[in-house]
Structures are given as C-alpha cells and as structure tokens.
Amino acid sequence: MGNEKTDGFHQIYEVFSKRSHKGDFQHQFSLLAPNKEMAFVMAQENFMRREPVVDIWVVKRDDIRMMQPEERQMVNRLDNKDYRLTKGYGYLRKKWRQYEQKMLDEKEILSWGDDGKTPKTTR
C-alpha cells in the first residue's frame, strides 16, 4: 500500500462501516482528503446519509500494514490445517462403514432366517 501518487496535499483514507451493533466492520470505499478530520466529514456526508450505519472508521491508508512477501511464505508453510476443519474428518464415515462390515462374520450371516432380515434364535 502507499504506492499511489497524490498531489502532496491530499492523503488517501479508507472507510469502514458497521451496519448493526452485532455486525462486523466492512470496507466501503477510499477517499482523498487533506487531513483526518476532513476525511471523517467526507465519509459521513458520502456514506452515512445513504445507508443506515451504526459506526464508521476512517483510516489513513499509510497506517494500514500489509504482510511482506517473506511473511506470506511463512503462512504458506502452515498449509496442513485439515484437522481444524470438519471437512478434514470426512474419511471417518468410510472407515466406520468398513469397521461395521468387518463385524459381520460368516456364521452370523448364515444364522439369519429365511427372509434374510431377522436372525434365527437358537436355544
């Protein structure tokens, strides 16, 4: 960030808004302003009168820090996170089915009745 050229007088600000007390802040737009007070007034005039919002944040773009390339490489190294997601356990259904099928042995299957559904009772 910060590669954008300005005239030296204006600075780039990012505007975030929150629509409800329980909601999250979302980025809305960028604007050029000479200082943070003017940026806040411009954000209110351009956004708050059009949309219902509870709160807004106006942040100078230069104050937002992004990840450096070497930091991204470190995050990419940690790619095996399936254990944190429920989709990572999808193989268990297949394993459980195999386990259940192994429990039925040949004697038990042959002891079932003629209809093949209910087991015979041997006393």
Number of helices: 4
Give the oligomeric state of the chains in this entry, treating copies of one chain as homo and distinct chains as hetero: single chain
Question: Helix fraction?
Answer: 25-40%
- Look up the CATH topology of one domain: Ubiquitin-like (UB roll)
**CATH architecture tag of one domain:** Roll
Round the mean pLDDT to the nearest integer and report it.
78
Molecular shape: elongated
Pfam families: PaaB
Organism: Siminovitchia fordii
InterPro entries: PaaB, PaaB_sf
Protein name: 1,2-phenylacetyl-CoA epoxidase subunit B
Commentary on this structure:
- This protein has 123 residues and is of the alpha+beta class.
- The protein has a domain at 11-63: Ubiquitin-like (UB roll), CATH 3.10.20.520.
- Helix content is 33%, strand content 18%.
- It has a 3-stranded antiparallel sheet with strand order 2-1-3, with helices on one face.
- A hairpin with a 7-residue loop joins strand 1 and strand 2 (26-33).
- The mean pLDDT is 78.
List the helices and strands and how they pair.
Elements: E1 11-18, E2 26-33, H1 36-48, E3 55-60, H2 69-77, H3 91-103, H4 106-110
Antiparallel strand pairs: 1-2, 1-3
